[in-house]
Amino acid sequence: MAPRRHDGSSGLLSAGWLGSPVTSATPTHTLPMPCAPRNGRCLMPTGVLLLRHASTVLLPGCQTFCCAGRYFLFCSPKRSARGVHPWEMAEHSPHAKITLQRLRNFIAVVDEGTITSAARLLGEVTGEGSPSSVRQNLQELRSAFGGRQLLVEHNGKQVPTDLGESLLRYARTMVELWKGASRLGTRTLTLAFLPQHAFFISPVILELERSEMTVHSRILGEQDRSTIIFESHVIGALAGGEIDLVVGPPPEPSRRREELKEHRLYTSRLEAMLPGSDTRDRIGLDELIHEGPLLVPPGPTRSRRLLNRSVRAAGLPAPMVKLDAYSSKALVAFGEDRHGTVVIPSDIADPFKEGNILAGPKASTFRWVPVVDADGRELTQEVYATTRGRPPADIVATVDAIRRSTDAFSLDVAA
Length: 415
Known about the structure:
alpha/beta, D-Maltodextrin-Binding Protein, domain 2, 4 domains, ten-stranded mixed β-sheet, three-stranded antiparallel β-sheet, 15 strands, 36% helix, globular, disordered N terminus
């Protein structure tokens, strides 16, 4: 027997799930719990009065019924005075305050730690953003959750509460889905890479352009090799949607974001440029330190940090550095004139080796050998292509093309 609707008419209850859209044509939802009707009759069971009460509060005009072994939630097709069905009221209020712009502001504050830094990042990426507008967006977002706190200050940084952490996961997913939807029907890629990697990136860009993809190349500055600058400017731009793919170091472990995905390309190693008359096929850290001054990248670079960390671990004195420079070409030029020993990563050294694109007239008079620790282990670091968490097929294909290019140049010392 079909239950009576609130307006006195009778009708069969249709199946659905609580929480999905309901119209006047399909006014009911099946609740995910069994029940036992009495004498085969559909009835409103007293055992779910609390549920009925909750649904009445949240969704005015809704009732629960037991029929055919299932609880049904029935909502009257009548609309409110504003012409809005109770289900629509539940769907859009207060969630209308949860907008993509506010979610982006929330994510930026969590990632950057302060409202001022978040506003600066948003201004760089979208051209919009001020501390006052970020505060306003956070207040509106908080009001959507009944005024419950989403962020608290800790050691001068804004950190999410438990509710904020839950929202952050949804926010990142929603923003990524929106970005993906925005890309539908387009074949445009913004690719950022360090100048030292241009020799294996260039063939990939040609391949992409032949497939009618529009590629915007962003050649990073030498100073972007600083781990601090790379993390804040380059990885920050990637997370903010300004860049689609970055080739270089991975995001710092302490700040690795959930929405970023790392794709390993190859492993490089520290190599030293020795005179051609030197017959050693490798050089130990102790030999490197005691034989003379070094020509190396500056302290903030990943390779210099690897070298310094290995020296400290071996209990050796700090190396004497005659020149530190971001420009590998400058280091090699000074090395060829015997100012000291150049120590740089193998992938950056590769173009300067004899027969390669940046090899000068003196390249044949020098040899590049790996630097090893006391146990004979090479000092290595990995190079990645980093994308946002759910890259579209075109970007995945680009990562594969870059990996094929690095394989063609035999850059992976771990292979």
